[in-house]
């Protein structure tokens, strides 16, 4: 740069000074403040002027700032006059908002040309660390002045009238919502506390907004409730909650906790206050299946602490009482008819599930409540009870059973549900009128239903026992309706978590039946045709089929007796190391009975066969009880039962045997009671005598003897004792030491798929294990147990 | 059946009305249970009854229980019996009977 040009510029320096520039800047600034039109040239010149003053005039920036401040103050003063001219609050608010809007817009424009000023002012004070987010000096100047001269004085009045407007809106009047928003913006933007910009807003506007809301509803809500009742009130509350939330989003500062605070306040004043009144309606609504209202109630109560749990309780109570009442109402039918019982249980389940779905949208908390209560219904023992015997102190043979006499009440009654479920399963899987009536898919879905109920059964061990007995009968008598379905059922039982050793045994039973079929085939190929035609053998795994069941001796008809060595010999050739035991109480057959009326095929048990064949040698004789006993060698109870089934078979018009003197029960047979064959025997169909036909006198195949049947329930208890001991040891082996509470929990967890052990039983078994030195109590804590290897 | 006919012939004369037997067998479904012919029904190695599959086989059978799963019994010269699976693992470590300590040699196998 040449010397001359520098000199020229210096000469012009005065031109760039504050004093030189200000006169042409000022009009533009005033125009901007008043929101009057400014040309592009004027706008750009303002930038330039500010730049020049800051650059060339050392004293320029502070001077510029001070004069600017004077002008802004002037403008504000005018605005103040305009605003304060209004006395009436609404008008005041309106005027304020108009001025504020204008001014606030200018706060965004006016500072831009003065950016240079800020940099030079800041350069002196702090190092250049300003970032753009920080409020500019000019803007702060503008807002601070506004706050000092206008807002500060009238903010309370403004706020009050804003709240009045909100209140009017709540009452249904429409107005310009900008009026309220403007007041809020003033609060937020005029805060001088840089650390917490929302402080003034929070302390004043927010607090008063929430307070006003609360006061409003404190009056309105009880009014609504007492006028329209709970149901309408719930709707009111729900609508208002939604409305207030939307309103809060409009009027309260969005990026703060305000909306949440307001909502909380509304919930508390609209819902929490009336919690008990609302909840009081819950039981009735559940009872009447008023799903819409319950849905609404849940929506409201879910927002209140501890609001849902009373509803859960109500649901549980309802299911339990309605379920039991339903059962009791039909007690005569369902205790007799397992089909009706299961259908009824399922019907209840569906009803409650629909309720939970429709009213509570399958909320998991309500599903749990449903399950809990339904379990109660299923396992309730007032409808019918299965009496488990009180365990005897003596005479117990199992080695691990406590030998000290304990008067335990493991004999507490249990629901017969598992037994009936098993019976129902049997009806579906056996060839019965029911299973014939249903399609395969229907049967499958009903079996699935059984499994569903089974899930809620506490004592699954009882179900398993009965189910296995039924399966045994079906397989031995070959009365399964569908063998594929049978095997599917086994798999489903496995899927629902039945104990593996149990399910494995069932599977083994099917396997045995198949093996026996092959065996018969081979037997037929190897033996005399006559024998093979008239005998069918089932040789089964004793472990899977008949552990512990006792055999009954019988003197077989010679013909049958002769088959036995032949079969045994055949079997011995095929297998080694095995011994065979004949289970004649399970075996059965078909005989042909010829008399003068005709020729009949009769399905009988082997015992019945043994009795009837006694007459083959003396067809027309009357044979005394005593002589039949000698001939058959059947035990007393078995012989009585067998004879009774032949001379008093239910639903048979003409019985096979006649008896003298006539009796009403098998117990009345005396040594000299005489029996003879009914030569007039015939099958009666529709009142007509048939010459030929087939009847079945087997009835329910006997799986165990009378004595062992009595022991059956006893053995359930014994098995439970062993299971508890086993499970305790299992747990302690793993944990080494465990406290009582933890042990109980884990125990129930292990055993829940079989039965629910009673506290008493657990306690007794712990004592027993301690006594026998399997475990011991901890030295320091008697409630902790230690495993002793 | 042959016998009952014979019976009838023998006694039929006395009764003189009947030419045919009274009750004749058409079909007999005989049921028998087999079990291993053992002195002790628990396998001393796995403590499971010999009629059931041994522990190992039971665990495997969970995977395919319809598959060939014959967990047979084996008798030693000492007449003690165990699951064959259990014993064959045992003899790898110690070729003596776990019960009587006699040298183990197989007398027979269950089939």
UniProtKB/TrEMBL annotation, chain A:
- What is the species listed in this Swiss-Prot or TrEMBL entry? Neodiprion lecontei (Redheaded pine sawfly)
- Main subcellular localisation: nucleus
Reading the lineage from the top rank, the first entry is Eukaryota
**So, what pathway does this thing act in?**
Protein modification; protein ubiquitination
Family, as annotated: Belongs to the cullin family.
Q: Which residues form the Cullin family profile domain?
A: 416-647
* Any single biological process term in GO: ubiquitin-dependent protein catabolic process
Identify a single GO molecular function assigned to this protein. ubiquitin protein ligase binding
Q: What protein name is recorded for this chain?
A: Cullin-5
Q: Which InterPro entries match?
A: Cullin, Cullin-like_AB, Cullin_CS, Cullin_homology, Cullin_homology_sf, Cullin_N, Cullin_neddylation_domain, Cullin_repeat-like_dom_sf
Q: Which gene encodes it?
A: LOC107220880
Enumerate the SUPFAM superfamilies for this protein.
Cullin homology domain (SSF75632), Cullin repeat-like (SSF74788), Winged helix' DNA-binding domain (SSF46785)
Question: Could you name the Gene Ontology cellular component terms for this entry?
Answer: cullin-RING ubiquitin ligase complex; nucleus
Short name of one Pfam family: Cullin
TrEMBL record, chain B:
Q: Where in the cell is it found?
A: Cytoplasm; Nucleus
- For this UniProt record, give its keywords in alphabetical order, as a comma-separated list: Cytoplasm, Metal-binding, Nucleus, Ubl conjugation pathway, Zinc, Zinc-finger
The record, for InterPro entries, names:
RING-box_E3_Ubiquitin_Ligase, Znf_RING, Znf_RING/FYVE/PHD, Znf_RING_H2
- Pathways per UniProt: Protein modification; protein ubiquitination
Question: In what residue span(s) does the RING-type domain sit?
Answer: 54-101
**Gene3D superfamilies from the entry?**
Zinc/RING finger domain, C3HC4 (zinc finger)
Family according to the record: Belongs to the RING-box family.
Q: Which PANTHER family match?
A: RING BOX
**Mind telling me what this protein is named?**
RING-box protein 2
Q: Which gene encodes it?
A: LOC107226259
